[in-house]
Amino acid sequence: MSKTDQTPRVHRLGDLQLKIMQTLWERGEATVAQVLESLTGPKELAYTTIATMLRKMEARALVAHREEGRSFVYRALVAAQDVSRGVADHLVDRLFEGSLTEAVNHLLTTRDVSRAELNELERLIREKRRTL
Fold it and tell me: What's 62's DSSP letter?
């Protein structure tokens, strides 16, 4: 997306919100109980915590619900790629002053990179060059 295009909305999600969204993206839709069940980890979460978070996320237009009997069934209103694109663009702009080269250089020098990942990056670059 060029700078002249309309800037996409950046969806800032906390860790719990992101985990909830990942559950909804994977499942398509889920009740509070189903979301809670999918969030296994070292920290025990309460049913009411998940229900409250989903209500807050609905107020932000991240999710919506429908009623099924006495349960609310939630679904994501925001696509995973929109969240990742918005966050990535925001990070490149803020941390690397918009420089994709600096962002990639940072990742290549601070993270372990496998030969397969380097080959894939080279393939993606060749593919991008063909479209320019």
Answer: S
Predicted confidence pLDDT, tens digits, the chain (132 residues): 444 455 556 677 888 999 999 999 999 999 999 999 998 766 788 999 999 999 999 999 999 999 999 999 999 999 999 888 888 888 899 899 999 999 999 999 999 999 999 999 999 999 999 999
Give pTM, 2 decimals: 0.72
Distance between CA atoms of 76 and 20, rounded to whole angstroms?
A: 9
Q: Which of 64, 70, 60, 61 has its CA nearest to residue 33?
A: 70
Spatial contact of 43 and 50, defined as CB atoms under 8 Å apart: no
Count other Cβ atoms within 10 Å, centred on residue 43: 7
